[in-house]
Amino acid sequence: MKNIGNTTEQYGIELLSFETKQLDLPSDNKAAVYERMISERENISATYTAEGSSEAQKIRNTTDKEVNVLLSEANKNAEILIAEGEAEYMRILSEAYSDESKQDFYSFVRSLDALKASMTGDNKTVILSPDSPIAQIFYGR
Predict the structure, then answer these.
(1) Which residues in the chain belong to E strands, given as ranges?
(2) pTM of the predicted model, to two decimals?
(3) In the chain, what are the domain boundaries?
(4) Which PANTHER family does its entry note (predicted)?
């Protein structure tokens, strides 16, 4: 713009404004320029996709690690609770069997539990000794 103003001043012309209405590529270069633009945009897109995939994998890895930690803690707590429950069960049983008055009752309850467990499915026939505590109840003794 300055160069144009310098050359026109000698003729008494002052250039105040210069506007371009249309700027276009030569037709023989258009295809190559457009292909280059497309290639650059595809490279940018591939970069963003790779960065996104990397971040997604980091998030998945972190989440998997946290899930494994939580599961192992939950399993540990479950095993502790099961062990405590079994210990309490054994304590109650030993207390019950140590008391002479309760020993017969708990023995009878365990016999009933065994009878119930044996009568699953279509198996409804049970052969009892006449001396068994369950048979004595059936016979009214």
Answers:
(1) none
(2) 0.45
(3) 28-98, 99-115+128-141
(4) MODULATOR OF FTSH PROTEASE HFLC (PTHR42911)
The residues, any chain, with a CB within 8 Å of residue 15's CB and separated by 6 or more, are: 1, 4, 5, 8
Residue 74: is its pLDDT beyond 90? yes
The structure tokens listed for 25 are 């590529």
What single letter denotes the amino acid at residue 68?
N
Query: What confidence category does residue 128 fall into, taking pLDDT thresholds of 50, 70 and 90?
Result: confident
What type of residue is 112?
A: L
Residue where the block lists tokens 């290639």: 39
Closest by alpha carbon to 16, among 27, 28, 24, 4?
Answer: 4
In angstroms, rounded to a whole number, what is the distance separating the alpha carbons of residues 90 and 94? 6
Distance between CA atoms of residues 139 and 56, nearest Å? 73
> Three-state DSSP class for 123?
coil
**How far, CA to CA in Å, does 56 sit from each of 43, 59, 67?**
20, 5, 16
